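User: I'm writing a short report section on ligand binding and want a predicted complex to refer to. Could you take this sequence and iron/sulfur cluster and write out the structure as tokens? A short remark afterwards would be nice.
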Amino acid sequence: MVHEAQETTQSLKVIDEARQGSVLYKEEWEKTASVGAKRFYIESYGCQMNFNDSEIVAAILYEAGYLPTRQLEESDLILINTCSIREKAEETVRKRLRVFEAVKRRRPGTLVGVLGCMAERLKKRFLEEEKLIDLVVGPDAYRDLPNLIRGAESGQRMVNVLLSREETYADISPVRLDSNGVTAFISIMRGCDNMCSFCVVPFTRGRERSRDPFSIVAEAQDLFMRGYREVTLLGQNVDSYKWQNPETGSIVNFAQLLEMVAQIHPRLRVRFSTSHPKDMTDEVLYTMARYDNICKYIHLPVQSGNSRILALMNRTYDRPWYEERIRAIRRILPDAAVSTDIIAGFCTETEEEHQDTLSLIEWANFSMAYMFAYSQRPGTLAARRYKDDVPEEVKKRRLNEIIRLQTAISLRHNQADIGKTFEVLIEGDSRRSDCDFCGRNSQNKMVVFPKKEGYKPGDYVYVRIHDATSATLRGEIV
Ligand code: SAH
Ligand code: SF4
Ligand code: F3S
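Assistant: Sure. The structure tokens for the complex follow:
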């Protein structure tokens, strides 16, 4: 996922009272740009949390006098916020570094910095492997960026990959880089304390810590004031959110945080990601049921449908537990959609165990899934303990079977919506045509519909569905 630059003019087209804040912010940047300040360019890969981190980095750099640019060629500082989750993600980053190298050759003096998970994983070694890199900065060290940049400007190659037990960047208000002005992400915690055996995240992001709930509510309130109508609360495992008030000792859990954010305004939609099957409580489900503005959508990664494989993955739940969680969702939130993540071909997975994943997918009726072939990551438990013994072509074939099945189920799921009417929050023009708007329903399905006089991004509309593919619903405003 590359940060796709959205035209600034697009957000300027839709100025209304409430949105002026965010628009002015961008204009202000453009005005100061002429003064001759230094420019930074940032590109992000990986999960939403990484994209959100880039917005924190932008805020830190802005404070230090840097301005953002979308032009590589005019940047004094090129940053790439990286992901290590699968080998392919890292390969993509290496390829981009070749492009930056060429820019640097044409513009000597341009600094190149690597941020994020790959920086954390490779640390100092990155400098040995990549001669063009000036800065290597881990996800908990972004406050040190101005200092590190100064060092790099004086010709040193700088590294800070210290992980922290406390850092949540709670006081930093992210600069919304490529925003549609309607939906935004808010990180509510950092790191991860689970040790899923396939996963590199605990090593690249460090220990789990929760952010002060009042700073989260304040950020969401500010977004609402600036015209935003949807926030997604982010964490690797939102259900283990837990904040203790240092003065009173009282605790805020995820269900309570969700409620605090939902109470900001009935017109502010609340989403969250990611839920972990072992931690998702009925209390969260009942809180969702009580508030219309908490979207009826849960991303609940299962990874595998086989209990032996789940144990090897160290997911700490088995298939019956996962099925029980799905039943609880259906009982408490009958109209909720559930999506998932699946890994095909984990160490020692047999053909029968793969069939278990297919049968679970069929049973669970997921609206959508992110599906991956297992990619061994250096340093993880699985890499140390198990053999990556499923041949690549078997992994690929199993993954294709999973994708084929899930695509058919997504289509069936979407076709069942034909004839229904949904409340949709307009996000902007559809990707295919500027005669159409797109937006999501509560179940997180993308809905495309023809524009109509008087409606604009940020508005809620009722859309009646008349057509569906496996990825989108089509309809008309009613
Ligand atoms: N915290 C989330 C997952 C974050 S990573 C959770 O626990 O659900 C997103 C997804 O990437 C995971 O759910 C998993 O399906 C996939 N993934 C992680 N490591 C992987 C690996 N080594 N190979 C293939 N897929 C992987
Ligand atoms: Fe990785 Fe597991 Fe943590 Fe998710 S819960 S980030 S898969 S270790
Ligand atoms: Fe990738 Fe790091 Fe996110 S490894 S998925 S960017 S936490």
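A remark for your report: Residues 1-25 have pLDDT under 50 and may be disordered. Residues 421-477 form a domain with the OB fold (Dihydrolipoamide Acetyltransferase, E2P) fold (CATH 2.40.50.140).
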